[in-house]
């Protein structure tokens, strides 16, 4: 079908205006980048492409991994059967922690004009002095600024959708603003206006800023309104009323190709949160007093390269205004200069490839070749390929490819821009694919596959198709995968992506939603939890309340509550009676539930150590038995799965409340048994973060520490175990005193469980599942909040290798001097 070209400005040349450097993957000097090379095959088996995933030679046939395809989930009859799956998506703001720190100067507070609170101490003193009870009110403290986030909704900004979402989340978490309002600015419109709802048709015009208001504009400067000056004139009115800054999504080397002209100047503000019209600017090399502003009253506006460059200088300027800051500045209110490139389009695909090769960066040209190896293309898949294949590639390089005009819209997405499918025109795609070597062509699939294997359980995620069975979804015959899923990865994708079964009224002969064979292989505690969950579902499906069932069964209400909360294991006779009450008559289905009830009564592997365990620890061991991924942060001790027997003995001998040789020995045996299960072939993937003090703190003596560090280094070489260290140089960070684990558990609320050790007492353990709210605890004690903290710590953590070498030598010396 004919494609529609993607709107956007042409990319600029490399930083100094010269053609981009050539390297591996670029045509050799003097070669025609638009000329095909011979003797190449692709994943689909065609000429001049790469054959991916083939095996040769004699030997037993191996099952080929299933392909992952970019699709919104189209339905059809032609093609290979597929099932939906969720795969991890790279974060658009990988340095969120650094950005939050850079914006901390904006976290100022002022007394509220409207809100008052009771001053209890002053009220008590006044009552004691006067004998009258009179409430003394004080102004509530609140953030000093409101924020208006203006999002450019032009067609070229579609690739920054994920960045917009994460920026909003970052600003909300920062807690620096009293209110945050998000409005849209369509840079494709001829009549410019700020709309109350970005990307929404028919949204009304947003009101003007009132009071202390900061405005941030997220844009790439590519839309026509930036080239005509309409966007600048609209925003100039806001810049005269309050502080305003532009967040430019493209790197500074590409700004010349956009409608935003910038000059680096020294900027000084007369006071905090000063309007842009009050800013004084001067050139850093011109004599003081020389006016560089426009006499017609144009407003200077800082331009920040976002998110790659720290906004700390601008935040200091807005918050304190103590000294001049060197910033990129654009003058709003002037007409944009003529376009840098002529309007003539290259006539042939070969000329278009050649011009893109001359003007684009090295990384962008490499990315285009990798994109040509995948069909169809969606924005989430392009981000995955960008993140996993070309070293040093950033979303800005993806923007270069997107803005080149080589991509066309193949099919509009039913769920929005993220599901829209793109493709290269047939000859353009062939020519781009020929710029890759055979090795690089294979790396497209292999690189993304490795990335998915390492990050399969992280969020955010995107929906794709897994070409492995299915009845309602297909992938087209010409589709090419962006990754391959081997058996372990396929199981984890299915467990993470499988939707909950639809709740229907049970009928005679209906199949059970619980797989008893799979259930019997798990911990009895998890079997019991699955059974009571199923019993609650059956009751709710029939529309019964707990009181109605207890009356009909002639039970006490507390008995049914204890059964449905898992406080007691339901007996076989009570289970059969409940199933009859819920209308489950099929004998095979009843036998399945009975088998689950009997399995829930089995003794677990930890039964010999039951006297050492609390109820919370038993649930944690059940979580560990089915977890697919374990994230662990340890600020003081080596994580339990990696402790040696000597190290564990030294720790437990010190930390147990009731120490004793026999009790310590049993506790060590329990820990070693847990290790064997977690480190075995069926154990979960583990991502461990420790504070550097863990490697320096002596536990059990120098010889014990030397052997402990060797064990950490040994297990860190495994592909399913990642150990990282937060160095002392990272300074203070969030939640530095709590050891906690996050377990990805199929069947848990939100798919994740949180275990906090030493909370609320040294021997205590608190467990929470996702989306679980408790009135007796703050909202911060949730798996979601701790998962966000863990991601921030990942940004601070460093590779284990140099720390192991340094501290290992330290303990070697200590052993020799003993």
Walkthrough of the structure:
This protein is α+β, with helices and mostly antiparallel strands and 818 residues long. Helix content is 36%, strand content 18%. The chain is built from 26 helices and 26 strands. The strands form five sheets. Strands 8-7-6-9-10-13-14-11-12 form a nine-stranded mixed β-sheet. Strands 25-24-23-20-21-22-26 form a seven-stranded mixed β-sheet, with helices on both faces.
Fold blueprint:
Blueprint: E1 4-5, E2 66-69, E3 80-88, H1 96-102, E4 109-118, H2 120-130, E5 137-143, E6 145-152, H3 161-174, E7 177-185, E8 194-195, E9 213-219, H4 224-228, H5 230-241, E10 244-248, E11 263-268, E12 280-282, E13 299-305, H6 312-319, E14 325-332, H7 349-359, H8 362-372, H9 379-388, H10 395-403, E15 407-411, E16 421-424, H11 426-433, H12 438-455, E17 461-466, E18 473-475, E19 483-485, H13 487-497, H14 516-520, H15 524-542, H16 546-553, H17 557-564, H18 572-581, H19 587-600, H20 615-626, E20 629-634, H21 645-655, H22 661-678, E21 685-691, H23 692-696, H24 702-716, E22 721-726, E23 739-744, E24 752-757, E25 765-769, H25 783-796, E26 798-799, H26 800-817
Parallel strand pairs: 6-7, 6-9, 9-10, 10-13, 20-21, 21-22
Antiparallel strand pairs: 1-15, 2-17, 2-19, 3-17, 3-18, 4-5, 7-8, 11-12, 11-14, 13-14, 15-16, 20-23, 22-26, 23-24, 24-25
Helix pairs in contact: 7-11, 8-10, 8-11, 9-12, 15-19, 16-17, 18-19, 21-22, 24-26
């Amino acid at each position: 079908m004919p494609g529609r070209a993607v709107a956007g400005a042409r990319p600029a040349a490399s930083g100094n205006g010269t053609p981009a450097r050539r390297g591996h993957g670029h045509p050799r000097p003097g070669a025609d980048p638009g000329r095909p090379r011979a003797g190449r095959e692709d994943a689909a088996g065609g000429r001049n492409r790469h054959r991916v995933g083939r095996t040769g030679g004699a030997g037993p046939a191996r099952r080929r991994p299933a392909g992952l395809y970019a699709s919104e989930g189209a339905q059809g009859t032609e093609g290979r059967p597929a099932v939906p799956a969720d795969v991890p998506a790279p974060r658009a703001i990988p340095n969120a922690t650094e950005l939050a720190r850079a914006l901390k100067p904006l976290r100022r507070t002022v007394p509220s004009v409207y809100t008052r609170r009771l001053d209890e101490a002053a009220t008590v003193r006044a009552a004691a002095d006067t004998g009258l009870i009179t409430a003394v009110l004080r102004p509530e403290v609140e953030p000093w600024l409101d924020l208006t986030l203006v999002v450019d909704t032009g067609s070229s900004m579609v690739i920054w959708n994920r960045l917009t979402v994460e920026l909003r989340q970052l600003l909300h978490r920062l807690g620096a603003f009293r209110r945050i309002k998000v409005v849209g600015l369509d840079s494709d419109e001829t009549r410019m206006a700020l709309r109350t709802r970005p990307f929404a048709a028919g949204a009304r015009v947003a009101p003007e800023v009132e009071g202390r208001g900061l405005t941030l504009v997220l844009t790439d400067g590519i839309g026509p309104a930036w080239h005509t000056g309409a966007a600048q004139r609209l925003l100039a009115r806001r810049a005269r009323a309050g502080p305003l800054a532009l967040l430019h999504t493209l790197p500074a080397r590409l700004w010349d190709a956009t409608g935003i002209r910038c000059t680096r100047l020294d900027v000084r503000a007369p006071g905090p949160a000063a309007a842009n019209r009050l800013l004084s600017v001067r050139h850093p090399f011109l004599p003081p007093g020389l006016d560089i502003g426009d006499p017609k009253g144009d407003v200077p506006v800082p331009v920040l390269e976002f998110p790659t460059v720290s906004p700390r200088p601008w935040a200091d300027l807005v918050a304190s205004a103590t000294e001049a800051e060197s910033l990129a500045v654009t003058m709003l209110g002037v007409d944009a200069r003529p376009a840098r490139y002529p309007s003539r389009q290259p006539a042939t695909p070969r000329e278009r490839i050649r011009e893109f090769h001359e003007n684009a960066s090295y990384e962008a040209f490499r990315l285009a070749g990798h994109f040509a190896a995948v069909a169809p293309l969606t924005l989430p898949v392009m981000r995955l390929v960008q993140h996993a294949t070309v070293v040093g590639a950033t979303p800005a390089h993806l923007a270069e490819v997107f803005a080149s005009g080589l991509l066309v819209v193949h099919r509009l997405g039913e769920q929005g821009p993220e599901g829209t499918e793109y493709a290269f025109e047939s000859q353009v795609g062939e020519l781009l694919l020929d710029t890759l070597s055979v090795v690089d062509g294979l790396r497209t699939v292999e690189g993304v596959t490795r990335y998915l294997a390492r990050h399969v359980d992280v969020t955010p995620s995107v929906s794709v198709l897994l070409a492995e069975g299915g009845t309602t979804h297909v992938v087209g015959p010409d589709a090419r995968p962006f990754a391959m899923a081997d058996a372990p990865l396929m199981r984890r994708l299915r467990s993470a992506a499988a939707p909950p079964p639809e709740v229907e009224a049970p009928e005679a002969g209906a199949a059970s939603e619980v797989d008893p064979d799979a259930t019997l292989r798990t911990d009895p505690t998890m079997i019991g939890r699955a059974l009571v969950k199923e019993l609650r579902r059956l009751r709710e499906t029939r529309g019964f309340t707990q009181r109605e069932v207890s009356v009909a069964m002639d039970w006490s209400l507390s008995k049914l509550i204890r059964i449905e909360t898992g406080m007691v294991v339901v007996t076989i006779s009570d289970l059969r009676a409940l199933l009859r009450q819920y209308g489950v008559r099929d004998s095979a289905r009843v036998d399945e539930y009975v088998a689950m009830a009997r399995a829930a009564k089995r003794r677990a592997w930890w039964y010999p150590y039951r006297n050492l365990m609390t109820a919370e620890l038993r649930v944690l061991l059940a979580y560990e038995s089915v977890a697919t991924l374990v994230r662990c942060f340890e600020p003081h001790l080596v994580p339990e799965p990696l402790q040696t027997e000597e190290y564990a003995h030294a720790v437990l001998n010190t930390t147990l409340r009731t120490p004793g040789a026999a009790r310590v020995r049993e506790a060590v045996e329990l820990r070693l048994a847990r290790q064997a299960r977690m480190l075995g072939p069926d154990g979960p993937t583990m991502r461990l973060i420790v504070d550097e003090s863990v490697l320096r703190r002596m536990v059990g003596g120098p010889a014990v520490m030397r052997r402990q560090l060797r064990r950490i280094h040994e297990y860190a070489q495994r592909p399913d175990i990642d150990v990282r260290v937060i160095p002392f140089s990272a300074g203070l960070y969030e939640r530095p005193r709590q050891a906690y684990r996050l377990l990805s558990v199929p069947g848990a609320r939100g798919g994740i469980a949180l275990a906090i050790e030493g909370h609320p007492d040294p021997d205590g353990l608190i467990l929470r599942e996702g989306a679980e709210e408790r009135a007796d605890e703050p909202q911060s004690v949730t798996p979601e909040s701790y998962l966000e903290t863990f991601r921030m710590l990942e940004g601070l953590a460093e590779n284990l290798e140099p720390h192991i070498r340094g501290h290992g030598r330290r303990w070697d010396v200590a052993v020799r001097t003993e």
